[in-house]
Protein backbone atom coordinates (compact mmCIF):
# COMPACT_ATOMS: atom_id res chain seq x y z
CA UNK A 1 0.00 0.00 0.00
CA UNK A 2 1.24 3.48 -0.76
CA UNK A 3 2.43 5.76 1.98
CA UNK A 4 0.29 8.74 3.07
CA UNK A 5 2.05 12.13 3.03
CA UNK A 6 1.07 15.45 4.61
CA UNK A 7 3.05 18.62 3.93
CA UNK A 8 2.77 20.92 6.95
CA UNK A 9 3.65 24.64 6.75
CA UNK A 10 5.36 25.74 9.98
CA UNK A 11 6.68 29.10 11.25
CA UNK A 12 7.09 31.68 8.47
CA UNK A 13 8.38 29.49 5.62
CA UNK A 14 9.39 26.07 7.02
CA UNK A 15 7.87 22.73 6.14
CA UNK A 16 7.57 19.56 8.16
CA UNK A 17 6.40 16.42 6.37
CA UNK A 18 4.43 13.62 7.96
CA UNK A 19 4.56 10.09 6.54
CA UNK A 20 2.08 7.39 7.53
CA UNK A 21 2.45 3.70 6.81
CA UNK A 22 -1.12 2.38 6.47
CA UNK A 23 0.02 -1.22 7.00
CA UNK A 24 1.47 -0.65 10.47
CA UNK A 25 0.21 2.83 11.48
CA UNK A 26 3.81 3.95 11.96
CA UNK A 27 4.08 7.71 11.52
CA UNK A 28 7.22 9.75 10.93
CA UNK A 29 7.74 13.47 10.82
CA UNK A 30 10.70 14.82 8.89
CA UNK A 31 12.10 17.78 10.83
CA UNK A 32 10.44 19.46 13.78
CA UNK A 33 10.07 23.23 13.33
CA UNK A 34 6.90 23.77 15.39
CA UNK A 35 4.87 21.30 17.48
CA UNK A 36 1.38 22.85 17.17
CA UNK A 37 0.79 22.51 13.39
CA UNK A 38 2.34 19.02 13.40
CA UNK A 39 0.07 17.92 16.26
CA UNK A 40 -2.96 19.39 14.47
CA UNK A 41 -2.15 17.43 11.31
CA UNK A 42 -1.69 14.21 13.32
CA UNK A 43 -4.91 14.76 15.30
CA UNK A 44 -6.90 15.36 12.11
CA UNK A 45 -5.97 11.85 10.95
CA UNK A 46 -5.93 10.22 14.41
CA UNK A 47 -2.28 9.31 13.81
CA UNK A 48 0.28 8.88 16.60
CA UNK A 49 3.84 9.94 15.94
CA UNK A 50 6.35 7.06 16.19
CA UNK A 51 9.46 8.51 14.50
CA UNK A 52 11.12 11.93 14.26
CA UNK A 53 13.70 12.12 11.46
CA UNK A 54 16.01 15.13 11.66
CA UNK A 55 18.12 16.43 8.76
CA UNK A 56 20.35 18.90 10.62
CA UNK A 57 20.79 20.76 13.87
CA UNK A 58 19.41 24.25 13.07
CA UNK A 59 16.83 25.47 15.57
CA UNK A 60 14.03 25.78 13.03
CA UNK A 61 14.38 22.04 12.32
CA UNK A 62 14.81 20.66 15.85
CA UNK A 63 13.07 23.00 18.29
CA UNK A 64 9.81 21.01 18.47
CA UNK A 65 11.55 17.71 19.31
CA UNK A 66 11.11 18.01 23.12
CA UNK A 67 7.36 18.78 22.87
CA UNK A 68 6.70 16.03 20.32
CA UNK A 69 8.79 13.46 22.18
CA UNK A 70 7.06 14.28 25.45
CA UNK A 71 3.63 13.85 23.89
CA UNK A 72 4.24 10.78 21.72
CA UNK A 73 7.50 9.17 22.92
CA UNK A 74 8.64 8.97 19.28
CA UNK A 75 12.16 7.77 18.41
CA UNK A 76 14.43 10.63 17.35
CA UNK A 77 16.90 9.88 14.55
CA UNK A 78 19.48 12.39 13.35
CA UNK A 79 22.96 12.87 11.94
CA UNK A 80 25.79 11.34 13.96
CA UNK A 81 28.17 14.18 13.08
CA UNK A 82 26.00 16.77 14.86
CA UNK A 83 24.27 14.52 17.42
CA UNK A 84 25.51 16.70 20.28
CA UNK A 85 23.44 19.60 18.91
CA UNK A 86 20.16 17.67 18.50
CA UNK A 87 17.98 17.42 21.61
CA UNK A 88 16.86 13.98 22.84
CA UNK A 89 18.44 12.08 19.93
CA UNK A 90 18.01 8.28 20.20
CA UNK A 91 19.55 6.97 16.97
CA UNK A 92 22.60 8.50 15.30
CA UNK A 93 22.98 7.74 11.60
CA UNK A 94 25.39 8.39 8.75
CA UNK A 95 26.14 7.46 5.16
CA UNK A 96 23.90 4.69 3.73
CA UNK A 97 22.48 3.67 7.12
CA UNK A 98 19.03 2.07 6.78
CA UNK A 99 15.93 3.70 8.29
CA UNK A 100 12.68 1.85 8.92
CA UNK A 101 9.27 3.46 9.50
CA UNK A 102 6.85 0.55 9.97
CA UNK A 103 7.21 -1.40 6.73
CA UNK A 104 8.67 1.54 4.83
CA UNK A 105 12.40 1.56 4.24
CA UNK A 106 14.72 4.47 3.64
CA UNK A 107 18.42 5.17 3.62
CA UNK A 108 20.60 8.08 4.60
CA UNK A 109 22.89 10.15 2.38
CA UNK A 110 25.38 12.50 4.00
CA UNK A 111 25.27 15.93 2.35
CA UNK A 112 27.73 18.24 4.14
CA UNK A 113 27.67 21.93 3.22
CA UNK A 114 24.77 23.83 4.81
CA UNK A 115 25.88 22.18 8.06
CA UNK A 116 28.83 19.84 8.56
CA UNK A 117 26.70 16.81 9.34
CA UNK A 118 23.57 17.43 7.25
CA UNK A 119 21.84 14.25 6.10
CA UNK A 120 18.94 13.55 3.78
CA UNK A 121 16.47 10.65 3.80
CA UNK A 122 15.72 8.66 0.63
CA UNK A 123 12.68 6.35 0.52
CA UNK A 124 13.70 4.28 -2.49
CA UNK A 125 10.53 2.30 -3.21
CA UNK A 126 8.30 5.35 -2.74
CA UNK A 127 10.71 7.61 -4.69
CA UNK A 128 10.80 10.26 -1.98
CA UNK A 129 13.69 12.53 -1.02
CA UNK A 130 13.59 14.62 2.16
CA UNK A 131 16.42 17.04 1.54
CA UNK A 132 16.16 19.43 4.51
CA UNK A 133 18.18 22.55 3.74
CA UNK A 134 20.63 20.88 1.29
CA UNK A 135 18.54 21.04 -1.90
CA UNK A 136 15.58 23.37 -2.36
CA UNK A 137 13.17 23.59 -5.25
CA UNK A 138 15.22 25.71 -7.69
CA UNK A 139 17.85 26.43 -5.05
CA UNK A 140 20.12 25.04 -2.38
CA UNK A 141 21.01 25.86 1.22
CA UNK A 142 23.73 28.31 2.09
CA UNK A 143 27.00 26.53 2.80
CA UNK A 144 27.47 27.72 6.40
CA UNK A 145 29.70 25.00 7.85
CA UNK A 146 31.48 23.57 4.80
CA UNK A 147 32.74 25.40 1.68
CA UNK A 148 30.63 25.66 -1.47
CA UNK A 149 32.60 23.00 -3.45
CA UNK A 150 31.76 20.44 -0.73
CA UNK A 151 28.06 21.34 -1.05
CA UNK A 152 28.36 20.93 -4.85
CA UNK A 153 29.66 17.38 -4.31
CA UNK A 154 26.72 16.72 -1.95
CA UNK A 155 24.22 18.00 -4.51
CA UNK A 156 25.69 15.73 -7.20
CA UNK A 157 24.85 12.74 -5.00
CA UNK A 158 21.20 13.86 -5.01
CA UNK A 159 21.18 14.58 -8.75
CA UNK A 160 22.17 10.93 -9.28
CA UNK A 161 18.91 9.68 -7.72
CA UNK A 162 16.14 8.57 -10.12
CA UNK A 163 14.43 11.45 -11.94
CA UNK A 164 10.96 10.49 -10.74
CA UNK A 165 12.07 11.01 -7.11
CA UNK A 166 9.83 13.59 -5.41
CA UNK A 167 11.74 16.37 -3.68
CA UNK A 168 10.53 17.65 -0.31
CA UNK A 169 12.69 20.35 1.28
CA UNK A 170 12.77 22.38 4.47
CA UNK A 171 11.52 25.77 3.22
CA UNK A 172 9.17 27.49 0.80
CA UNK A 173 11.84 29.56 -0.96
CA UNK A 174 10.87 28.53 -4.47
CA UNK A 175 9.62 31.85 -5.86
CA UNK A 176 12.68 33.84 -4.83
CA UNK A 177 14.89 30.94 -6.01
CA UNK A 178 13.11 30.99 -9.38
CA UNK A 179 13.62 34.75 -9.78
CA UNK A 180 17.32 34.26 -9.14
CA UNK A 181 17.57 31.19 -11.39
CA UNK A 182 16.27 33.05 -14.44
CA UNK A 183 19.06 35.66 -14.06
CA UNK A 184 21.79 33.02 -14.47
CA UNK A 185 20.04 30.64 -16.90
CA UNK A 186 17.93 33.07 -19.00
CA UNK A 187 17.73 30.87 -22.12
CA UNK A 188 16.25 27.89 -20.27
CA UNK A 189 12.70 27.44 -21.65
CA UNK A 190 11.74 24.86 -19.01
CA UNK A 191 12.82 27.30 -16.30
CA UNK A 192 10.78 30.16 -17.81
CA UNK A 193 7.72 27.93 -17.85
CA UNK A 194 8.35 26.78 -14.30
CA UNK A 195 8.77 30.37 -13.05
CA UNK A 196 5.32 31.24 -14.47
CA UNK A 197 3.79 28.17 -12.78
CA UNK A 198 5.42 29.02 -9.46
CA UNK A 199 4.17 32.62 -9.59
CA UNK A 200 0.62 31.34 -10.12
CA UNK A 201 0.94 28.69 -7.37
CA UNK A 202 2.23 31.19 -4.82
CA UNK A 203 -0.35 33.81 -5.83
CA UNK A 204 -2.96 31.16 -4.97
CA UNK A 205 -1.26 30.62 -1.59
CA UNK A 206 -0.36 27.01 -2.38
CA UNK A 207 2.91 25.15 -1.68
CA UNK A 208 5.28 24.61 -4.59
CA UNK A 209 6.37 21.22 -3.23
CA UNK A 210 7.00 18.51 -4.06
CA UNK A 211 8.92 18.87 -7.29
CA UNK A 212 10.81 16.03 -8.95
CA UNK A 213 14.53 15.55 -9.39
CA UNK A 214 14.02 15.42 -13.16
CA UNK A 215 12.46 18.90 -12.98
CA UNK A 216 15.27 20.16 -10.73
CA UNK A 217 17.96 18.75 -13.06
CA UNK A 218 16.42 20.69 -15.94
CA UNK A 219 15.81 23.97 -14.13
CA UNK A 220 17.73 24.35 -10.83
CA UNK A 221 20.98 26.25 -11.58
CA UNK A 222 22.61 24.79 -8.46
CA UNK A 223 22.33 21.32 -10.04
CA UNK A 224 23.52 22.69 -13.40
CA UNK A 225 26.86 24.32 -12.53
CA UNK A 226 28.46 21.88 -15.02
CA UNK A 227 26.12 23.00 -17.82
CA UNK A 228 27.58 25.38 -20.42
CA UNK A 229 24.54 27.71 -20.37
CA UNK A 230 24.79 28.25 -16.60
CA UNK A 231 28.57 28.76 -16.73
CA UNK A 232 27.99 31.30 -19.50
CA UNK A 233 25.22 32.89 -17.42
CA UNK A 234 27.78 33.87 -14.78
CA UNK A 235 30.52 34.70 -17.30
CA UNK A 236 32.57 31.57 -16.50
CA UNK A 237 32.32 29.47 -19.68
CA UNK A 238 34.72 26.50 -19.60
CA UNK A 239 35.52 26.90 -15.91
CA UNK A 240 35.50 24.18 -13.28
CA UNK A 241 31.89 23.38 -12.19
CA UNK A 242 32.82 23.75 -8.49
CA UNK A 243 34.04 27.30 -9.22
CA UNK A 244 30.86 28.06 -11.20
CA UNK A 245 28.80 26.68 -8.32
CA UNK A 246 30.69 28.87 -5.84
CA UNK A 247 29.98 31.94 -7.97
CA UNK A 248 26.28 31.00 -8.24
CA UNK A 249 26.08 30.65 -4.46
CA UNK A 250 27.75 34.02 -3.88
CA UNK A 251 25.45 35.75 -6.34
CA UNK A 252 22.41 34.19 -4.67
CA UNK A 253 23.61 35.39 -1.25
CA UNK A 254 23.47 39.00 -2.42
CA UNK A 255 20.43 38.61 -4.73
CA UNK A 256 17.51 40.84 -3.89
CA UNK A 257 14.37 39.49 -5.43
ZN1 LIG B 1 19.23 25.01 8.17
Give a quick summary of the entry.
The protein has 257 residues and is α/β, with parallel strands linked by helices. The chain contains 9 helices and 14 strands.
Description:
With 257 residues, this protein is an alpha/beta fold. It is 34% helix and 22% strand. The strands form three sheets. The protein has a six-stranded mixed β-sheet with strand order 1-2-3-4-5-6, with helices on one face. The radius of gyration is 18 Å and the shape is globular. It starts with a strand and ends with a helix. Residues 56, 58, 114, 133 line the site of zinc ion.
C-alpha Rg (nearest Å): 18 Å
* Class by alpha and beta content: alpha/beta
The number of distinct β-strands equals: 14
Pick out the low-confidence regions. none
**What is the end-to-end distance?**
42 Å
Helix and strand sequence: EEEHEHHEEEEEEEEHEHHEHHH
Which geometry do the CA atoms define?
globular
Largest sheet: 6 strands, mixed
Helix content: 25-40%
Number of helices: 9
Strand order within the widest beta sheet? 1-2-3-4-5-6
Listed once per kind, the bound small molecules are: zinc ion
Content of β-strand: 15-25%
Arithmetic mean of pLDDT: 97
Amino acid sequence: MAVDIRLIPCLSDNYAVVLHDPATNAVAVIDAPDAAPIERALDAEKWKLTHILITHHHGDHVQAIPALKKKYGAIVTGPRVEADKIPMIDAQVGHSDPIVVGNIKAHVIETPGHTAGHIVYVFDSEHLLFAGDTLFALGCGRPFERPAPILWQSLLKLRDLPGETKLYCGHEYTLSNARFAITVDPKNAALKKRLANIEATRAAGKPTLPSTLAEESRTNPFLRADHADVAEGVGMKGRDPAAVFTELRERKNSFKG
